[in-house]
Amino acid sequence: MIKLLGIEKIYNSPSGKVHALRGIDLEIARGEIYGIIGLSGAGKSTLVRCINMLERPTAGKVIVDGQDMTTLTESQLREARKNIGMIFQHFNLLSSATVYDNIAFPLKLSGMNSADIKKKVSPLLELVGLKDKAQQYPSQLSGGQKQRVGIARALASDPKILLCDEATSALDPQTTKSILELIKVINGNLSLTVVVITHEMQVIKELCDKVAVISDGIIAERGSVLNVFTNPQHEITKEFISVLLSNELPAAFRGNEVSQDRTPGSLLLLRLIFLGERADDPVLAKMIRTCKGVECTMLFGNLDEIHGVPFGRFIIGLSGEDDAINSALNFLGGEDVRVEVIGYVRRNSAAVE
Amino acid sequence: MFAEILPLLSKALGETIYMVVVSMAIASAIGVPLGVFLHTTAKGQILENIFINQTIGSVVNAVRSIPFIILMVAIIPFTRFIVGSAIGTTAAIVPLVIASIPFIGRQVETSLKEVPAGLVEAALAMGATPAQIITKVLLPEAMPGIVSQLTTVIIALVGESAMAGAIGGGGLGDLAIRYGYQRFRPEVMLATVVVLIVLVQLVQFIGNTLAKRLDKR
Question: What is the pTM (predicted TM-score) of this model?
């Protein structure tokens, strides 16, 4: 549905040239919810604006629904943009127009008559749950309600694509959740292709099928949300994920030296990651039964779900004779669980007492 | 005595209102589009054209830097060419219009600048043409500001129209100078000043009310 080929964007600023995008290739399939995450200044907003040509790329091709957007004339571009809805962080509603008129705005631009406009706007008001607010002005609405108006307005021209530019970044967590739900419903019902720009991993995790991590104008990492979440490769990805999933050691071990060699009184800490049905398997119980002489302490545990796939993360501490520990490691290596050896760490003495 | 002043006063008030209303109508018809032009051709705007923008901008600045009383005298040949005479109420309208066009242009430009850029971006993303952005986004969104700014222009025009009295333009300024000053009639001077104050208050009140009613922010 959307294909970006070798996108470059260079800005001329007074302090010299700024290379905002350095060769981005990206393909987004029909009906997909594709997340693009990055820190501010990473180029993600520029990238999403290249899709509807609000920003013209310095080089590269933007193919939307089989059409190369970079070669269109101004009036062809205006027509093509009607197939691409967009919502914004600050909603960008007309303050001088009512909710109804805001939603009707793109239809008025197309010269639709008011009877047809009414037929289109009423179901949209219903969809976003603002039927009773139709005659109010945006200043009378909450942030979440404003974004609902933004969504209804973006859908009014029956687009095939919805671009969301930090659409929930100005909203509180509760409201964010309800807006994400709404986007999911729309994606399902209208089989709309959705591109989501965000700096919040939570949004990616709850909403997206696929994700691209953008950093310094290039895509550092991409893939299904499940894969990127459970097996991040790039430092920046790990950082984003660590906001949701802490990588810190449990408090009793924090700050102590991590050694690969056994030291007296230390535990061998392992990070275990269970995925899918494995998350329910009694792997640890089996390990304790199988490997005699190993003591296992559960230090941290977290069970989550990504797109309905269970996803568990644990930190355990092993102690016992070297042989016992090695047999435990061997056992875990043969099970369908990802094991990351953190190392030998001593407990804080205060925590022992 | 009051009975003697009253007809003078009402005639002068009529002339002032005539000068202000006609000048304002003509100046707005040119000044509002000028303001739109100054805003939309500036850097980063929908019709960006920096060369034309700066050229027109410097003409606007040049006219605005001439004090009204000097402008009035300086363009007498032009006024004569347009109205056929350089003296009288109608003749006074020419310099009033010339002085007000750039004033209105800058005021409208200021109001348009306050429309958030995101609104224009959203309209562009919906496939709006530049003309649609001007008529359906920029002007409606800036309207409360434009009404307030135009109120200021009208009040400035009341003052300038009084100066026009100095070259025989009629109106309240003319009355105050000829009767109040040259014929030593302080009561005429006082009455004129009172009428001017009431007039300005009224204009300001109407302007504020209208701007407030339009403002939905």
Answer: 0.86
